[in-house]
Fold:
Amino acid sequence: MKRIMVLAVLSAAFLSVACTGAKTTVVVGAKDFTEQDILGNMVYLLVKAHTDIKVEYKHEMSSNVVFAAIKSGDIDLYVDYTGTVYGNYLGYSEIRSAEEVYDIAVKALKEQYDLLMLEPLGFNNTYTLSVRKDTAEQHGLKTYSDLAKISQNLILGATFEVLNRNDGIPNLKKAYAMSFKEEKAIDGTLRYTAMAKDEIQVTDAFSTDGLLLEYDLVVLEDDRQFFPPYYAAPIIRAQTAARYPELQTLLLKLSHILDDEAMRELNYRVDVLKENPTETAQNFLKARGLI
Structure:
């Protein structure tokens, strides 16, 4: 009997420690591309520098994986984009203003998932379609509507995610009546090298992508405004925010701190100049007096 009681006490103690450990660790998440790694590091470094909270950083996740992770509690906070929430997670497709998209995202995240979307960081990383300069000049391409007229002769190389998302290529083709000669799933910087070799003639990009500068690509105008605004903003679990109220105050320091040009420059530093994402984030925060 004594042995059973001792085991019961030890088991209870173990569970208590485990639960306590879980409650004292905040996990910052990020997606699987350069900009997200920079932003994830900013959040991680900010929390680490200004609180006594034990903090971990997990990245290299797709949009759907990271969103599932915050819903389940595997991560506590990360930076996402208003258009991704609006179009991909919530399934909306109607064209709305940036303010409307943000308001809908905030309301739905709280009501449906008990998640809080905080103030935007300031830049709009919307999706774009881009082509080489010679392709644009040869076909007189300035807009998506121009592209639609000759799309059947061109090969599209885009990320696997955007080829399959609700707010991605499938519905974009419907909106513009596009039909590409071929569609290839190509992730990361390989899209740009494929463009340089003329293995593909059209690719998706983020408007703040530093590689647009490196490869001197022409960004076409989304003249029917298919893609919603993608303003970056921190998302945090309501339970985490209640447990650590200092986190919301801290994250507000990032509010409207970046514009498109500044984010593009940070991405350029990592993708082209080969800076370490952690060092790039750290240097930016130091320059702004945040750490």
